[in-house]
Amino acid sequence: MSRPSDPEAARSAPMARFFAGVMRRQLARQFRAVRIARPGLPPLDVSRPVMVVTNHPSWWDPAVMIALHDTLFPGRTGFGPIEAAMLDKYPFMGRIGLFGVDEGARGAAGFLRVAGRLVARPDRVLWITAQGRFADPRERPLGLRPGAAHLLARQPGLVALPLALEYPFWSEKRPEALLRFGTPVAAREGEAPAEVGARLEAALTASCDALAALAMARDPAAFRTVIGGARGTGGVYGLWQRGRAALSGRRFVPDHEEG
Asked: Residue ranges of the domains in the chain?
């Protein structure tokens, strides 16, 4: 099937905003909260395009990216690669800034060509699940695919921003969506793709390790909540909690633990 060869022309800003709202509501319903580890987004040079490079623990990863893009990067337009077969199946994804990438060497060349054109402007953000497959957040090494490193080496103005993602259960019925930004990485003059790729993987691994420690600590104070989600257990147990609070004269708190 033929696909739009120009993601910029295919993307619709109203459609992207609408779909981002849909994803925010989905995240609010399915998660206790979406939280970003403090101190949050590192300072970025507004004159340089950004490539957010993430691990890939869940089906929810693209939803988080779409939902949070405008909050994290106001004034910048977001794009991201997707398997070409998925774009063929769901053509509307091209309207929200996703572009298809085929498997193999031909697909890699196409990714570099299209992505390189997109990040030639400073007001762009490219989102990439760089493992290219679903992987447990504790898996090491991360095994990033080389496309991000090759793009960095070709685009000296581009800044890669590592972002760790994890979806643990804490004390509530619904899981947490946790994010942690790492130290930005840019290619040095004359640096080979393999070298910048090793530095990028090290930076993302460090952020994933730090997020794992925060996830195990289960302290909401270590995070900023960007989307507050569904609270409590609901059902019969939820009604029992509410009734017990009313009988004792206490304020009803739907969580097992406040925070």
From this structure: 7-228, 230-259
